[in-house]
Amino acid sequence: MTLKALELSSFKSFGKKSVVHYTTPVTAIVGPNGSGKSNIVEAIRFVLGEQSMKSLRGKGGVDLIYKGSKSLSAANRASVSITFDNKNKIFSFTNSGLGVSLDYDEITVSREVFADGANKYSINGTEVRLKDVNDLLASVNIGSSGHHIISQGEADRVLNASSKDRRGMIEDALGLKVYQFRIKETDRKLEKTVLNMKEVQAQRREVIPHLTFLKKQVEKLEKAREMREELGVLYRDYLSRESAYTKAESHRLIHKRRTLDEAIVNIEGRISAVESNKNQIQNDESYKEDLRDRESFLVELRRKKDELSRKLGRIEGSIDSIMRSINKVPEVRVDIISKEAWQGFANDLESFLSESDNTEDLGVLKDIFARIRNRLASVRVTSNKEEANSVKEELKREYIELESVRESINLDIENMSKEEGEIIAAINSIRDAEKQSQNANRDSERVLYELLAEKNTLVSNMHGLVFEEEKLTNIKNAFESEVSEASVIIGREVLEYVRMDVDGASVSRSSQDEARRKIERIKIKLEDSGALGGGDLIKEYEDTRERDQFLEKELVDLQKSIESLRTLIVDLKDTLDTEFKRGVEKINKQFQEFFSLMFGGGSAFLSVTMEHKKSRKKDELEEVDPEAEEDTELGFERGIEINVTLPQKKVKDLHMLSGGERSLTSIALLFAISQVNPPPFLVLDETDAALDEANSRKYGNMIENLSKCSQLIVVTHNRETMSRAQVLYGVTMDALGASKLLSIKLDDAEVYAK
Length: 754
Hints:
By secondary structure, the chain is α/β, with parallel strands linked by helices. 61% of the residues lie in helices and 12% in strands. Among the domains are: 1-148 and 680-754, P-loop containing nucleotide triphosphate hydrolases (Rossmann fold, 3-Layer(aba) Sandwich); 291-451, no CATH class. The protein has helices at residues 37-47, 130-138, 157-160, 163-173, 177-283, 286-328, 339-355, 363-377, 385-489, 509-528, 534-599, 620-624, 659-676, 693-706, 719-723, 746-753; strands at 3-9, 18-21, 26-30, 77-85, 106-114, 119-123, 126-128, 149-150, 603-612, 636-645, 681-685, 711-715, 727-733, 739-745. Strands 2-1-4-5-6-7 form a 6-stranded antiparallel β-sheet. Helix 14 (693-706) links the parallel strand 11 (681-685) and strand 12 (711-715).
């Protein structure tokens, strides 16, 4: 894998898009001071994820954006892209779930910065996080800063650094950062696991008292199990008999209500018929009117009869008088009834006739009366015999006529008597009918009373039926409540009572009441034992026990995880220590060679030191496992010391070296490190500025040797260094006020020079 290109757009002094191609082992970047040479190095730092604005010579993201000039306007963002050759598919992700494919021949990493300081990272055009960029670059042993980028003025940084920082630089150069990352990641996991373990322990401490309490309650439930089983048997028998009883009683009451309804309807019909008949008898009063008419007629008839009787008496008196008159008439002289007497008789008879209403019966009397009146008109008084005989004859005729009238009156009286008898018989018949009607009315009233009494009995039975129905309804409600309560106490299996066949007619309420009292006694015992909520309590106990078992298993797993992480940390530290020591040995070998080459002799090597750490509080590991023995290295930390001995000098302290000697020493060390674990590319930003001509040649020779292992990007003013490059990029400030790149191959330059 090699660096192929670097693209800058509006980054610092590069106002226009500029591309630097790296196609040779050594590429030199030259140019006057202030032209923007170092901006290319900073662009590499920037795109590789550098977060320190100080390292990029700025205070904020806005300082990295092109500010503009008189001819070019200012930009609102800056971007840098770096392209790597990935034909060998060396790049990889530790986090496989990122979702970015690396199956390409080229990998391009881009970074943009905006005026508000926001940054945007992308890999092959896909936006990612800074962590993902670091993960990708760590797979090929490069980063934003470190041993592969040495900026201007930082050549002797490795000499000025503390032993701890120097150790970090060596580890980074040896590619051991991955172990450091893994150790830190494992430490974070261990810390998180410890926190999780503490949380689980806290949860378990909360669960255990409750579990103990629930266990005691469950033991009580176990003791109450037999009572519950007995209660279940009693409940099933009681409920089955109660169900059969309510069904049988419901059928009986329904049949009884139907019978009573029919009887009441029937009796009401009969009562209605009797009342109708009674009303009809009471409303039929025609016989009374007939009786009144007949009685009135009888009275009138008797009055007329009495009149006729009186008239008959007068006529009979007249007849007797006539008979006496006839017997007294002398042979010579006959005293004739005076005209006035006859006139008085006629008047009486006329009065009788006027009072009589029966003209048909008195017709004869009227005729006789007329003849008598005519006779009176011709009456004369005689004194001779002849006249006496005539009078006698006349009296006889009158006698005969009166006798005829008497017979007629007797006949009328006889007829009237007969009619009177008939009227009396009719009246008696009507009175008998009235008596029979009264008897019938009394019979109707008696029947109506009996029917009303029977209806009252039926209504009373209906009220009793309503009471029985209400009582049955209460029994049903109590039964449903009992079924519900039994389901809660015993469970759904209590509903098996519906499968039991029981004759409801044979169920006694007294036996059911006794069974109910027995059930209540057992329920009270269960309540005293706290077993009525057994279902929920057992479920809660099981859930709590499962929770405790789960937490216990979690603790075991977390403990195993902690032990595993500790083991991993120890293994990683052992591996890091082993690789570090092996790398230091390799670096010492190369360091000695480069140092001897640079100084013409002498010795130089790195030594590992152990320094006491500053006192700190016990970490979480110690709190979790206080009995664990403390690591012997917990109170110490490694460091790297540089030991040099110059030829023909006894100077061994780095602070006593001159500036050139320090530069040569740092260059020798950096080149030695690069030889041990060659980075894909190495950036040298004016690291040769302090070298004289002789040392510059040595520096150039080392560059040629390094170019065989790493791709070199050299920013320099040194002609000797320039001569070792294959391509020169010149950086200048054009008329528009922006950095501009010019490139030339040295082979072509030699041809042009000739």
